[in-house]
Every structure is written in structure tokens, then in C-alpha cells.
């Protein structure tokens, strides 16, 4: 299981300290939400911020590009220190070349899908990716309500992974709290992004620990063993 706090929900007056707080929290990855004001109606931060915080931690940098033209951003983020770069399936005919571009830079590849998009769209790419990001809110803003209608997509992603003997991670992002994280774990997710619940917590370390415990308690593989 991977727990990934999203820097989008951190205190913007002190990014460096917030990265160090995440580093000390026991979380596995740092999730970096990149918004371009076009693919989504909000703007966050760019490769220079990623470059600036890179020396502060050895955490895995999970870069989520919510951008209309990722082809011009993949290399700058790769050079800035991303470990994985995720692009959206809603970019349709661009997806294959984006996947190859990310791979050619030696980075792990993620593919994201928005709540209204049919899960069948990701099917042709499943054997080419390291991670499938099932968005559980419409991207653009932190602190939104979890969309329960996305749960069957997680189940489908998990079923395909099993049937096709693939090993991509199933990541969920948006509206995760101690209740919805359990629902996602039961549906088959293994990688959990959270902004508000984690960075909003006074004690980030305790929040990560609590989330991890809840995911473990709802892990379907462990449930099978108990039977
Ligand atoms: C949504 C972003 C999420 C967001 C999650 O556009 O992709 O990563 O930061 O934040 P919370 O956990 O506050 O919903
Ligand atoms: Zn994200």
C-alpha cells in the first residue's frame, strides 16, 4: 500500500517545511498536482517548485499532470525530479506518444481517468502503464466531496489486472477521508492520494498511520485469508 499526501493542500507560505513534514510522516510518496488553468479551471505550480523541493526529501515524487499539453511539460518535470508522471486518458490520440515520452526519460508512467469518462477508454493502455489513477472527484480543486459512482471503476480496474496478470498500481485521488479510503481499499485500490485529510491534520504522522491502519483493515486480500 502507498499513502501519498498531496502538496496541493499544504500551507503555501511554507512549502519547504511542508515537504519536510511529509518526509517525517511515514508517508510513502509525495503527490504533486499540476494544473494548467485550461485542462482544469485552476493553476497550481510548475517544474521549478518541484526542482526546489527535490533536495529536501528522498520521497518518491508522483507528478499528476492535469494539463492540456503535457508534451511540453514532461521533460521539464522529469528533469526537475519526478519519479512518476501521470497523464490523462481524456487526451485521447495523444496518449500513446505521451506514454512513450515518459518512458524514454526513464520515468514510471501513470494514466488518469476522470469521473465522467468511461473506464473502457483505459483498456488499450493497461499493459503499458505502471499506475492507473482513478479520479474520485472532478479534478481542479482540493477539498471536494468523494464521488461514490467511481467505485465500480476501481473494481473493474482490479478485475482486469487480475485477469490479464498485470501489475499496475490502482491509485485513487480526491475526497479521501477515513471513511472513503476504506471503500476504495475494499474496491481494490492500493495507492491513496489525500490532500485535505492528511495535510489538513495537525499531526500528519498520526493521520498517515490512521489511514494506513484503515486500509489494512479493509484490504480484500487479507479478508480472504481470514475466511
Ligand atoms: C484534485 C487533485 C487531488 C487533490 C486531492 O484535482 O488531483 O490530488 O489534491 O485533494 P483532497 O484530498 O483534498 O480531495
Ligand atoms: Zn492528483
Residue share in β-strands: 15-25%
Shape: globular
Total of DSSP H or I helical runs spanning 4+ residues: 9
Total beta strand runs: 8
Determine the CATH superfamily.
Aldolase class I
Query: Biggest sheet, in brief?
Result: 8 strands, parallel
Q: Give the end-to-end Cα distance, rounded to a whole number of Å.
A: 22 Å
User: How many structural domains?
Assistant: 1
Order of helices and strands: EHEHEHEHEEHEHEHHH
Question: Can you tell me the residue ranges where pLDDT is under 50 for at least 5 consecutive residues?
Answer: none
Radius of gyration: 16 Å
State the CATH topology: TIM Barrel
Which CATH class applies here? Answer: Alpha Beta
Mean pLDDT across every amino acid position: 97
Bound molecules: D-xylitol-5-phosphate, zinc ion
Indicate the structural class: alpha/beta
CATH architecture: Alpha-Beta Barrel
* Secondary structure: helix percent: 25-40%
Can you list the strand order of the major beta sheet?
1-8-7-6-5-4-3-2
Your description of this structure?
By secondary structure, the protein is an alpha/beta fold. It has one domain: TIM Barrel. 35% of the residues lie in helices and 19% in strands. The chain contains 9 helices and 8 strands. It has helices at residues 15-24, 47-53, 74-80, 95-104, 151-163, 180-187, 196-199, 204-217, 220-226, and strands at residues 2-5, 29-35, 60-66, 84-88, 108-113, 131-135, 169-173, 191-194. An 8-stranded parallel sheet has the order 1-8-7-6-5-4-3-2. α2 (47-53) packs parallel to α3 and α6 packs across α8. The radius of gyration is 16 Å and the shape is globular. The model has no long low-confidence stretch (mean pLDDT 97). Bound molecules: D-xylitol-5-phosphate and zinc ion (ZN). Zinc ion binds next to β2. D-xylitol-5-phosphate binds next to β2, β8 and α7.
Amino acid at each position: 500500500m502507498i499513502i501519498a499526501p498531496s502538496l496541493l493542500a499544504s500551507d503555501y507560505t511554507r512549502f519547504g517545511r511542508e515537504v519536510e513534514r511529509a518526509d517525517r510522516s511515514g508517508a510513502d510518496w509525495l503527490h504533486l498536482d499540476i494544473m494548467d488553468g485550461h485542462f482544469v479551471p485552476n493553476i497550481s505550480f510548475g517544474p521549478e517548485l518541484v526542482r526546489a523541493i527535490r533536495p529536501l526529501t528522498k520521497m518518491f515524487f508522483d507528478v499528476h499532470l492535469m494539463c492540456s499539453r503535457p508534451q511540453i511539460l514532461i521533460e521539464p518535470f522529469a528533469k526537475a525530479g519526478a519519479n512518476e508522471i501521470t497523464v490523462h486518458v481524456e487526451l485521447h490520440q495523444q496518449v500513446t506518444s505521451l506514454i512513450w515520452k515518459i518512458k524514454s526519460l526513464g520515468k514510471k508512467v501513470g494514466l488518469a481517468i476522470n469521473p465522467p469518462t468511461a473506464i473502457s477508454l483505459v483498456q488499450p493502455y493497461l499493459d503499458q502503464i505502471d499506475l492507473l489513477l482513478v479520479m474520485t472527484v472532478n479534478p481542479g480543486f482540493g477539498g471536494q466531496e468523494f464521488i461514490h459512482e467511481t467505485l465500480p471503476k476501481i473494481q473493474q480496474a482490479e478485475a482486469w489486472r487480475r485477469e490479464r496478470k498485470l501489475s499496475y498500481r490502482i491509485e485513487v485521488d480526491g475526497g479521501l477521508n477515513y471513511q472513503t479510503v476504506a471503500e476504495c481499499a475494499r474496491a481494490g485500490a492500493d495507492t491513496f492520494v489525500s490532500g485535505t485529510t492528511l495535510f489538513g491534520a495537525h499531526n500528519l504522522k498520526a493521520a498517515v498511520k490512521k489511514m494506513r491502519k484503515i486500509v489494512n483493515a479493509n484490504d480484500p486480500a487479507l479478508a480472504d485469508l481470514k475466511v
